[in-house]
Amino acid sequence: MNDIKTILKELTSLSGVSGHEEEVARYMYEKFKGITDDVAIDNLGNIVCHISSEVKNAPKVLVFGHMDEIGLMIKKVEKNGFLRFERIGGVNRQALPGTHVVVVNSQGKKVNGVIGLKSHHIMKQDEKSRIPEVEEMYIDIGSSSDVNVYERGIHVGCFATFKPSFTELNEDLVCSKALDDRAACTVLLRLAEELSKEVDELNSEVYLVASVQEEFNIRGIMPMVRKIKPDIAVGIDITPSFDTPELNCTASDVVLGKGPAITYMNFHGRGTLAGIIPSYKLTEFIEKVAVQNDIKFQREVITGVITETGFICIEGENGIITGNLSIPVRYSHTPIEVADLRDIDMAIKLLLNVIKEIKSFNSFRFIS
Q1: Cβ atoms 228, 48 nearer than 8 A
Q2: Residues 6+ apart with CB under 8 A from 20
Q3: What does pTM read for this prediction?
Q4: Looking at the annotation, which residues are catalytic?
Q5: 3-class SS at 297?
Q6: CATH topology of domain 2-69+177-364
Q7: CATH architecture designation of domain 71-162
Q8: Backbone dihedral region of 142: left (phi > 0), alpha (psi from -120 to 50 degrees) or beta?
Q9: What angle do CA 276, 278, 279 make, to 5 degrees?
Q10: How is the chain split into domains, by residue range?
Q11: What pLDDT digit, counting tens, does each position of 49-101 carry?
Q12: Other Cβ atoms within 10 Å of 128 Cβ, number
């Protein structure tokens, strides 16, 4: 489990909002290249690691997770040196006031800052129970003028992330920003390591993709999907864990420590009719493999969650057989996301066995 923890800690220490995943992409690319030479990156930043099979005409299996994290983009520099911002992705507004952030300047240097809020002593009574609008918020980097901000290489268009603060709550639970979806990136790297040792057992061409811009437009992976033209695709992302006091398993039974959640449906439900009802045959197959290998898993039906799978499944003339695996996380889209390392480990073991068991995509056809 220590290798999972180490990789996850390294990945979450990196800054990579949607459209600016360079630091994470460089890490993933170098790690993949240390395993195989068959690694490529497209113009958007999607990285593919290809593990080839010795079987002729083997089905193409795509397994993916996104590199980008939610964050902020500077939209205005005030004369007095404070920075106004816009959210990139679904940043929880409640989690912003009083938060430590890192602003990445035009040279890639990281500048510490905090999201300021009015001093409690002078707040009016109604202000004490109100969350400020994003338009009211600002970042304080210690500059006293806009000139000083510009001298520090910060301007409109620079981005910020939550400040890294990887913490071990106990031997299994870790807390950090960007577990969504660096947990999946960790899975991809471990899969690449293991699959590269077992090429003779592969009956499929495996494409491990670390994707971009999921948190912003959910479609950054699509050029890579069109290039690979997979027969089967399995996405890895996080999903809310319902084991905290305010949730108490009210809408879902998915919790930390009971394994990855196999998705039966996810649906955004807010502002867009998008989501996925995955291939039932592929979903049943994943469950069967889990049972055969004594790997714990959970079942997931969730509204409010969407991943790239919702668009991948309808790609191409015939569509793509698609499944989805979710890693439970508490406090998603905040600086204090919490995950269980055992769930990540079980996701790795499950996907490794699923990939090795896939011999043909014919058995997953809608009617066969």
Answers
A1: yes
A2: 68, 104, 159
A3: 0.95
A4: 214
A5: coil
A6: Aminopeptidase (3.40.630)
A7: Beta Barrel (2.40)
A8: left
A9: 150
A10: 2-69+177-364, 71-162
A11: 999 998 888 999 999 999 999 999 999 999 999 999 999 999 999 999 999 99
A12: 9
